[in-house]
Structure formats: C-alpha cells, structure tokens
Design goal:
By secondary structure, the chain is α/β, with parallel strands linked by helices. It has 2 domains: about 160 residues, Rossmann fold (3-Layer(aba) Sandwich), CATH 3.40.50; about 45 residues. The protein contains 9 helices and 7 strands; from the N terminus they run H-E-H-E-H-E-E-H-E-H-E-E-H-H-H-H. It has a 7-stranded mixed β-sheet, sandwiched between helices. Helix 1 crosses helix 2, helix 4 runs parallel beside helix 5 and helix 8 runs antiparallel to helix 9. It is elongated and about 60 Å long. The structure holds S-adenosylmethionine. S-adenosylmethionine binds next to strand 2, strand 4 and helix 4.
Length: about 230
C-alpha cells in the first residue's frame, strides 16, 4: 500500500514512537508502522468525513484499533495531552497549509515532538515556520515518484533558534549542501516554468518592468545555486 514517498517518511519515524499523523486520509502511514511493530501508539487525524471514514476502515481492516485511534479533528486538535505524542507527521499538503496547522495548534506542541513534514509545494513556508518556532532542521530528503518531486523535512526542538539564510529557506539547508540529481531536476523544472512566465510577461506591454526584473532575479538566483556558486 505504502507509496515510496510515505515509506521515506516512515523510515524517519523512531521505533516505539507515539505518533500523530495529521491529514492521514487512509491512515496508511500509521498503519504501516503499527503492522511493522514500530508504533507504541498512533493518532490518525482527519478534518474531512470521507478520509476520516477511510482511515477508520483501514485501521479496522488491519485490526489495529488497540494501537491507532482515528479522530475527526482540525489539525493538531486531534492530539490530546494524555496521548504523550512524540512525533507528528503532516504529509501530502501544501507548505502554507502545513505551517497554518502548526501555528494554529502550537499549544499541542508544548512537549516538543519531532516534526516530520512533507510539503508538496511551498517548502520555504514550512522552513520559515520551523526556524521561527525553535525547530531545527535535522534532515531533508528529496525524491521523485510518479513524475512528482517531493521534499521531506525532519525537525526537532531547539532552545537556541537556528539561523537560515534566504537561500537555505528556499532550497533547504541540507538539500543545498548535497545538490543531488533530483534537487537539480526540481530546480531546472522551476527555471523552465519561470522562463515561460517571463516570455509571456515580455509579450505583454502593460506589465511593470519591476515584475519582470523580480522574475529575472529569481531565475538568476536558481541558476547561481545550480551552477554551484551559492
Ligand atoms: N497524509 C496522506 C498522504 O501523504 O498521502 C494524505 C494526504 S491528502 C492529499 C491530504 C489530507 O489532509 C486530506 O485527506 C485532507 O482531508 C486532510 N486535511 C487537510 N487539512 C486538514 C486539517 N486542517 N486537519 C486535518 N486534516 C486535514
């Protein structure tokens, strides 16, 4: 059942974790971990009825009701203090939604659980939230599945705020160090996309020059990173 993407997330979850998977849909991730004896306790949180029912069914089918509780709740409201959650996963959503969920439910993070986040887009929003809220990025992965490129960010609490440069927020501090082939492919694609937009803007006379310049600057920044200068 488990996609390559969620398998990569699963590998980052420590053994015997007390996990809350927020936006769990079919609860495939917590179910997989429980079936592999890697979970002490799990919460599968869903805000939408359909996916909530999917999760309920999956947990029942696999006979995991004693380890995993499926809860209908908005974001981190699925977590109770008595759960003693030490890992939170939020996967397969936009980075803005992920950081909104974290910000709205911040009181549920009082015990500083490890956060494993897999934004589909807008990764820099997630990194920004993490560093501003005393989380340091411990590891990052970038991987490709079914023509999509995904990033996975694992972070843990730090009393001393981590400082990231603007480039590190955008590209990821670890991904930027490594610059592997998938990373290059992702940002090549982004350049191609931005260049298409730029060509359209250049055809349109009413577009302010500053807008085109901003786009050119962004393309140049990505080029700089790919060419190894930053
Ligand atoms: N996490 C699974 C994965 O990575 O394959 C499912 C991803 S699915 C695309 C996103 C899920 O997040 C949907 O089922 C949606 O209902 C749920 N979701 C969106 N906003 C949420 C929120 N505020 N709280 C809980 N779940 C949410």
């Amino acid at each position: 059942h488990l996609s390559k993407r969620l398998l990569a997330v699963a590998k980052l979850v420590p053994t015997n974790a007390r996990l809350a998977d927020i936006g769990s849909d079919h609860a495939y991730l917590p179910a997989y971990l429980a079936l592999n004896d890697q979970l002490a306790f799990g919460v599968a949180g869903e805000v939408v009825k359909g996916p909530y029912q999917n999760a309920k069914q999956e947990i029942k089918k696999e006979g995991l009701d004693d380890i995993i509780e499926v809860r209908l709740a908005d974001g981190l409201a699925a977590i109770k203090a008595t759960d003693k959650i030490n890992v939170v996963t939020i996967c397969g959503m936009g980075g803005t939604l992920i950081s909104d969920i974290l910000a709205t439910g911040k009181d549920k993070l009082a015990d500083h659980p490890q956060l494993i986040l897999q934004p589909n887009v807008g990764e820099s929003n997630v990194r920004k939230w993490l560093v501003e809220n005393n989380y340091q990025i411990d590891s990052e992965q970038i991987m490709q599945e079914d023509g999509h490129i995904y990033e996975i960010i694992s972070a843990s609490y730090t009393p001393v705020k981590q400082e990231l440069t603007e480039a590190e927020l955008i590209f990821g501090p670890w991904l930027l160090k490594e610059k592997n082939e998938t990373f290059k492919a992702k940002w090549q694609k982004e350049i191609a996309k931005l260049e298409t937009i730029l060509i359209e803007l250049q055809k349109a006379s009413h577009v302010p020059a500053t807008k085109k310049e901003a786009l050119q600057t962004r393309i140049a920044q990505i080029r700089g990173v790919l060419d190894g200068e930053g």
